[in-house]
């Protein structure tokens, strides 16, 4: 088998394959044995007619087509491997020359991962990884954050609402501009509208105006919905809210002391402080690695240009859609409600996601190139070790879960994910001296 490779536009690889005439002759024999039983030949039991008689009645073209299909199936992966092509889309097979006793020629055109030459990384990896040491103020905020997480909400009756309070509102909203402004019916009415002041979860401008209001005292609030609000009927519109705080609770934050430490399972306050401080240092280190990775990938993008396979971009968009759908379902909604609220189509949402998907694919391809250059690999045992916790969780033999992964194609997908993670760790952590 001879193989020739041509790189076409749009990340398409054209692999031209030539099969020796001897292989074609053997394929014709196999093809005859495969198809002879499908036809009734006069004077012979089904499947017993000699090949010459078969060709006279049925035609030689049937055997050539079957032989061609068998040869393509047999040599397809071998040809791609010989040409060092990693397919990512559905192939198109073109038969170029097909005749017995002559070379069989066919072309494979398929979207594939581009060949990326990133060059030396020394100039990008010679900068030290700078991890900031947390200041006393940083540590204190971290301790306070843990204490706040243990706070109990207590009712407040005679004091005004403040930042961090949780309130329940009797709320009615009215448009103050357009045809709807003359109507007395509110566009929203809720007797149990819950807000955490300072969380940023309510419409912009509402939470800050609640500060200073007391329970059971009616108030009128004015604000304008932002231009990027998902509800097209409200974006950019001035509105008036008639509100009354019907319930106000305030977090009762415990002091940072021995009692808090023991409540959280520590032996003493010092152990609590040391653990929280180390956790903050780990987070700062991870952030420094993430920043370094982003910086180096940004420079690689400027240095290396290549076409993105559309199949990989579409898969990345599909993954983003899946992530969004999972997030919406956790909030009690779904994709259909989301696009309806934004007055867009599913196709519009796909196109919104495309730039981010393209960046994700570009970075992953660059990281795979780094892995190849640095001989970073992921063996079967590495993949199995990542599957093992799932097997333990579901109390299933790890061999069964591994087989399930292999049958669905998830085993190799996980291998690729682990490879990208290894390459990311290498780029974010490796410092070349000098």
Automatic annotation (TrEMBL):
Catalytic activity: [protein]-peptidylproline (omega=180) = [protein]-peptidylproline (omega=0)
Taxonomic path: Bacteria, Bacillati, Bacillota, Clostridia, Eubacteriales
Coarse class of the protein's main subcellular location: cytoplasm
Keywords (A to Z) from UniProt: Cell cycle, Cell division, Chaperone, Cytoplasm, Isomerase, Rotamase
Protein name: Trigger factor
InterPro entries linked: PPIase_dom_sf, PPIase_FKBP_dom, Trig_fac, Trigger_fac_C, Trigger_fac_C_sf, Trigger_fac_ribosome-bd_bac, Trigger_fac_ribosome-bd_sf, Trigger_fact/SurA_dom_sf
Molecular function (Gene Ontology), one example: ribosome binding
GO cellular component terms, A-Z: cytoplasm
NCBIfam families: tig
Domain-level remarks: Consists of 3 domains; the N-terminus binds the ribosome, the middle domain has PPIase activity, while the C-terminus has intrinsic chaperone activity on its own.
E.C. no: 5.2.1.8
Family: Belongs to the FKBP-type PPIase family. Tig subfamily.
PROSITE patterns: FKBP_PPIASE
Function: Involved in protein export. Acts as a chaperone by maintaining the newly synthesized protein in an open conformation. Functions as a peptidyl-prolyl cis-trans isomerase.
Pfam family, one: Trigger_N
Gene Ontology biological process terms, A to Z: 'de novo' cotranslational protein folding; cell division; protein transport; protein unfolding
Localisation: Cytoplasm
Domain PPIase FKBP-type, first and last residues per copy: 164-223
């Amino acid at each position: 088998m001879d193989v020739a490779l041509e790189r076409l536009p749009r990340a398409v690889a054209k692999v031209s394959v030539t099969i020796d005439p001897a292989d074609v002759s053997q394929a014709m024999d196999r093809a005859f044995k495969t198809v002879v039983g499908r036809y009734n030949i006069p004077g012979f039991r089904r499947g017993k007619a000699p090949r010459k008689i078969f060709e006279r009645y049925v035609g030689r073209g049937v055997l050539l087509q079957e032989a061609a299909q068998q040869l393509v199936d047999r040599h397809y992966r071998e040809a791609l491997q010989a040409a060092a092509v990693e397919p990512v889309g559905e192939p198109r097979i073109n038969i170029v020359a097909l005749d017995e006793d002559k070379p069989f020629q066919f072309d494979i055109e398929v979207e594939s991962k581009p060949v990326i030459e990133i060059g030396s990384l020394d100039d990008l990896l010679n900068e030290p990884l700078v991890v900031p040491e947390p200041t006393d103020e940083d540590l204190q905020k971290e301790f306070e954050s843990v204490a706040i997480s243990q706070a109990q909400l207590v009712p407040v009756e005679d004091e005004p609402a403040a930042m961090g309070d949780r309130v329940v509102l009797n709320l009615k909203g009215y448009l103050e501009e357009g045809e709807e402004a003359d109507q007395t019916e509110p566009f929203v009415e809720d007797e149990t509208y819950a807000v955490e002041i300072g969380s940023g979860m309510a419409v912009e401008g509402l939470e800050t105006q609640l500060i200073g209001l007391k329970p059971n005292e009616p108030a009128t609030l004015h604000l304008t919905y932002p231009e990027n609000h998902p509800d097209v009927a409200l974006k950019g519109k001035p509105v008036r809210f008639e509100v009354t705080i019907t319930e106000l609770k305030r977090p009762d934050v415990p002091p940072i002391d021995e009692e808090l430490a023991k409540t959280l399972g520590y032996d003493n306050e010092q152990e609590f402080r040391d653990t929280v401080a180390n956790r903050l240092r780990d987070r700062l280190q991870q952030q420094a690695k993430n920043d370094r990775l982003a910086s180096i990938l940004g420079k690689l993008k400027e240095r290396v240009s290549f076409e993105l396979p559309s199949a990989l971009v579409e898969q990345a968009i599909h993954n983003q859609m899946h992530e969004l759908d999972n997030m919406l379902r956790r909030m009690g909604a779904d994709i259909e409600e989301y696009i309806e609220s934004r007055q867009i189509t599913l196709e519009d949402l796909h196109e919104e996601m495309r730039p981010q998907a393209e960046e994700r694919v570009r970075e992953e391809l660059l990281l795979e190139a780094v892995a190849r250059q640095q001989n970073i690999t992921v063996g079967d045992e590495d993949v199995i070790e990542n599957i093992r916790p799932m097997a333990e969780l579901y109390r299933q033999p790890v061999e069964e879960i591994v087989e399930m992964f292999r049958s669905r194609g998830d085993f190799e997908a996980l291998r690729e994910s682990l490879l990208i993670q290894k390459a990311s760790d290498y780029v974010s952590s490796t410092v070349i001296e000098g």
